[in-house]
């Protein structure tokens, strides 16, 4: 994770949304009220069933299926990556008791007294600890969300002072959970590579000692969800992102599909996976990272647990030669992944704007 900024960043007063909900449940401070173009449209009309939306990948067919099942599911995975950039994974082989434990402990952490959570502050300009990330000015609009984030791998990205002592077994469970999600990411990257016609281990070899982080997001109810956003629109700077949505919560995740914000209905015990900017660069835009956001709900809270999986900071990245030819000119320059990561976390979330860092700028000949 990037170091603490050399000069302090002035972010002004940031209300803790859980405390705001407790003490002034009808109040929406102006810093949370979005400008008109950014406000979400909250539909109340029935939506088609989730199976007609985001693709579903059965991991057991990839890992234990017969030859025909494996080939079919690799094709389904490739189609999901190219057409959606998002998919839900069922039968993912992560112990369901472990999913249940990390969910319960995350919720317990957010329910701790504010003074306890503030022992692990997210310093402005950094992305570990408790608070709000990606805030860089006093007039910036804020998300209706509390976050708690930790660097996991390699060991040097960790800040031991930010690992909480309460609830009990929180740290041990995060360790165990992160290890299982890490295995899943490596396995998925193998099948994604095969779907691209590459050797299965190409990404594992390229990435070196992969960087991994975890972030818990807690979205309290909001009396005016039409005025706020739970999380600003953005794409992820990772290679893969794994999202666990807590049971019983409202639909909150939306992805930008064909210029329309599509709500994602979570399947029980499934994990939602999305392609990050790194894979878009490596495939020269064949697989694209997709803009997504979170919305708030008037009556229900929502909890999500997100894992970010990316190459080592010292790896140099750029489009792979297999995806560059006369019909597909190179869209991105080569760059150091650590530099990109630093660029990502030191800018506010603005759709896919961060990826401009890597784009080759074409001259306008008109």
UniProtKB/TrEMBL annotation:
Residues 210-311 form the Fe2OG dioxygenase domain. The keyword rRNA-binding does not apply. Keywords: Iron, Metal-binding, Oxidoreductase, Vitamin C. InterPro entries: DIOX_N, IPNS-like_FE2OG_OXY, IPNS-like_sf, Oxoglu/Fe-dep_dioxygenase_dom, Plant_2OG-oxidoreductases. PROSITE patterns: FE2OG_OXY. GO terms for molecular function: L-ascorbic acid binding; metal ion binding; oxidoreductase activity. The keyword Oxidoreductase applies. Pfam families: 2OG-FeII_Oxy, DIOX_N. SUPFAM superfamilies: Clavaminate synthase-like. It comes from the Eukaryota. Transmembrane segments: none annotated. Belongs to the iron/ascorbate-dependent oxidoreductase family. This is Protein SRG1. It comes from Cajanus cajan.
């Amino acid at each position: 994770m990037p170091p603490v900024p050399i000069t302090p960043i002035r972010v002004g007063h940031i209300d803790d949304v859980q405390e705001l909900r407790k003490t002034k449940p009808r109040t929406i401070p102006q810093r949370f009220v979005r400008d008109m173009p950014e406000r979400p449209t909250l539909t109340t009309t029935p939506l088609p069933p989730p199976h007609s939306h985001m693709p579903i990948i059965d991991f057991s067919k990839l890992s234990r299926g017969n030859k025909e099942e494996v080939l079919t599911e690799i094709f389904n995975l490739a189609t999901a990556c190219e057409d959606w950039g998002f998919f839900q994974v069922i039968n993912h082989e992560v112990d369901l008791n472990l999913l249940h434990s990390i969910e319960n402990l995350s919720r317990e952490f957010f329910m701790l007294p504010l003074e306890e959570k503030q022992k692990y502050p997210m310093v402005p300009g950094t992305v570990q600890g408790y608070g709000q990330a990606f805030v860089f000015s006093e007039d910036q609009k804020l998300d209706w969300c509390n976050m708690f984030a930790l660097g996991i791998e390699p060991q040097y990205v960790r800040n031991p002072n930010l690992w909480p002592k309460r609830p009990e077994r929180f740290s041990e469970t995060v360790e165990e959970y992160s290890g299982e999600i890490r295995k899943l990411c490596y396995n998925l990257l193998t099948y994604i590579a095969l779907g691209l016609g590459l050797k299965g281990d190409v990404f594992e070899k390229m990435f070196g000692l992969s960087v991994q982080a975890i972030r818990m997001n807690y979205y309290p109810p909001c009396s005016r969800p039409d005025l706020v956003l739970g999380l600003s629109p953005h794409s992820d700077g990772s290679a893969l992102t794994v999202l666990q949505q807590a049971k019983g919560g409202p639909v909150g995740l939306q992805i930008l599909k064909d210029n329309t914000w599509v709500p994602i209905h979570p399947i029980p015990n499934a994990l939602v996976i999305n392609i990050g900017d790194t894979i878009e660069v490596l495939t020269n835009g064949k697989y694209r990272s997709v803009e997504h956001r979170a919305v708030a709900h008037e009556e229900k809270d929502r909890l999500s647990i997100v894992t970010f999986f990316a190459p080592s900071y010292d790896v140099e990245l750029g489009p792979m030669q297999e995806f560059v030819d006369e019909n597909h000119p190179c869209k991105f320059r080569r760059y150091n992944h650590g530099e990109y990561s630093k660029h990502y976390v030191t800018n506010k979330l603005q759709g896919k704007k961060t990826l401009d860092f890597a784009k080759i700028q074409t001259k306008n000949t008109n």
